[in-house]
Design brief:
Blueprint lengths: L3 E9 L4 H17 L4 E9 L7 E7 L8 H8 L3 H6 L3 E15 L6 E8 L5 H12 L9 E9 L1 H4 L4 H5 L9 E7 L2 H11 L1 H7 L3 E15 L1
Antiparallel strand pairs: 1-3, 1-4, 2-3, 2-8, 4-6, 5-7, 5-8, 6-7
Length: about 220
């Protein structure tokens, strides 16, 4: 089981999408998964409405992998193809996360991601509610393969790099991410609704709550 996850959400500049998608599966994900401690990389396309048409999810051994000199060198010395693609990112959100809660081991073909920032002073109360009441029993639902709660390390997520400087505007942030994975869209949508995460976060005055449903495009595992 991985102890760390990198989540990357975003859109693509109009006209750049075909090449952008080719770059992702031919160079970008293989490059990342080839680095020390990087176990897998998956890319999904959004199937409901909203911003952040794509999400990429990487599983790593630990948060220390984000500090590895090999990874830092890649971020600061991007390939020519990467240099060409970075300015095409739009609405970019990057979260280097520790896994706070996980149930299940199987990656799903469909995922729901819910990003949020709980109020100061209520972070642990919100974490306990999501890991317990909201997510804990969803793994037992038909069609649900895994549920996770991730907490971002803001220092690692927002560290300035050459790649970041090539993107248009500053990167977005996300303090926490809940992920529900399953075998089909209906199962994931039903589990998200049953969890009450979105309404529960609103009642707890969480900020920047953004949910989306995504379908797998491809996956690479070491």
């Amino acid at each position: 089981m991985s102890d760390a996850v990198l989540g990357v959400w975003g859109d693509v500049e109009a006209g750049a999408e075909p090449e952008f998608n080719e770059w992702y599966h031919r160079e970008h994900v293989p490059q990342r998964v080839g680095m020390p401690g990087w176990r897998s990389g998956r890319r999904y396309r959004r199937v409901d409405r909203g911003r952040h048409r794509y999400v990429a999810i990487y599983e790593l051994d630990s948060l220390a992998c984000f500090d590895d000199p090999v990874y830092r060198d890649v971020l600061d010395r991007p390939t020519e193809w990467t240099r060409r693609m970075m300015p095409s990112f739009r609405n970019f959100v990057r979260a280097s996360c520790r896994v706070r809660f996980v149930s299940g081991e199987v990656a799903g073909g469909f995922v729901a991601t819910v990003r949020f920032d709980p109020p100061e002073g209520e972070r642990e109360a919100v974490v306990r509610w999501i890991a317990g009441q909201a997510l804990h029993d969803l793994r037992d639902r038909s069609g649900i393969t895994r549920v996770q709660l991730l907490e971002a390390d803001s220092g690692r997520s927002l560290t300035p790099t050459t790649e970041q400087q090539l993107r248009v505007g500053p990167d977005g942030r996300s303090a926490f991410v809940a992920i529900i994975e399953g075998t089909d869209r209906a199962a994931v949508e039903a589990a998200l609704a049953e969890s009450g995460i979105e309404s529960g976060l609103a009642a707890r005055q969480a900020r920047d709550v953004e949910a989306g449903i995504y379908q797998l495009m491809f996956a690479l595992t070491r």
